[in-house]
Design brief:
Layout (H helix, E strand, L loop, with lengths): L4 H21 L20 H15 L8 H12 L4 H8 L5 H6 L4 H15 L1 E2 L8 E2 L1 H11 L15
Antiparallel strand pairs: 1-2
């Protein structure tokens, strides 16, 4: 289904409560096939939905925001999790890749993760060197080549990565 098991359990419990509400409402029930509805099955008034959202934010101790802002949060969380763009588009219901740029925000934990990964890629610990103890693989490759016999021809930057 693509939903966390805990969320599926919450939705199942909600459905059970809604079935009971439908029984109590009897002929007053409006069958609109809404997941979230009033006690008689009618769509929730947008003002009521807004009020519930605001109350939820207060109870959770989260800064005030629009319900629509939750979409930005969801997309950013997917980005934090490293979800690829195509999967993110499928989860969020987007057909245009530009939506990922619009909704998924570059946040500090992502920047820190990228910096840590770059650090791991570019520098390795070399205890006993006269430098600060850190050498990049490129420095190591340059020194190794300097120590070996000179290669004929012109050396280009691409040669360092081979």
């Amino acid at each position: 289904m693509g939903l966390p098991n805990e969320l599926v359990q919450l939705l199942d419990a909600h459905r059970s409560r809604q079935v009971k509400e439908r029984g109590r409402a009897a002929q007053l029930w409006t069958d609109g096939d809404w997941i979230f509805a009033t006690e008689t099955g009618a769509p929730i008034n947008p003002r009521t939905d807004w009020s519930h959202w605001k109350q939820l934010l207060i109870q959770a101790g989260i800064r005030d925001g629009r319900l629509h802002d939750a979409r930005h949060t969801a997309a950013t969380v997917l980005l934090l999790l490293g979800v690829d763009q195509r999967s993110m588009m499928g989860i969020m219901g987007w057909s245009n890749p530009a939506m990922a740029t619009r909704y998924a925000h570059m946040v500090e934990p992502i920047r820190q993760d990228i910096a840590a990964r770059l650090s791991g890629l570019l520098w390795q610990s070399n205890v006993g060197t006269e430098k600060s103890g850190l050498r990049s693989p490129i420095e190591t490759k340059i020194e190794t080549r300097r120590e070996s016999a000179p290669r004929p021809g012109i050396r280009r930057g691409a040669d360092l990565c081979s």
